[in-house]
Amino acid sequence: MPNFLGLERWQVMYQQPDSVGALVMGLRKDVDARTYLGFSAPKGIDYDSRDIGAQKRLLADRVAGAGWVIPQIAEHMLRATDFHFYSLSQSA
Predict the structure, then answer these.
(1) Which terminal residue of the chain, N or C, has fewer Cβ atoms less than 10 Å from its own Cβ?
(2) What is the pLDDT along the chain (92 residues), one digit of tens a residue?
């Protein structure tokens, strides 16, 4: 996404108590930033691994109403051509 936070060799992270979060990394102010959005799903989720549009909508719905700049990040994500969706899992 565009580096609208003006990050240069820096990364920032935002985490809400309900486990919605974002990480933004910027190498230079004049280069796009790399962004990660995440949410907690203790019971898992069902999604079609081939339907990128549905994955984007699912993620946008899960982070809707979150704080910080997550709404702007989600808007950029919906237009992204290099979107990747996967599960980051942990077991105890």
Answers:
(1) C
(2) 999 999 999 999 999 997 899 999 999 999 999 999 999 998 889 999 999 999 999 999 999 999 999 999 999 999 999 999 998 877 66
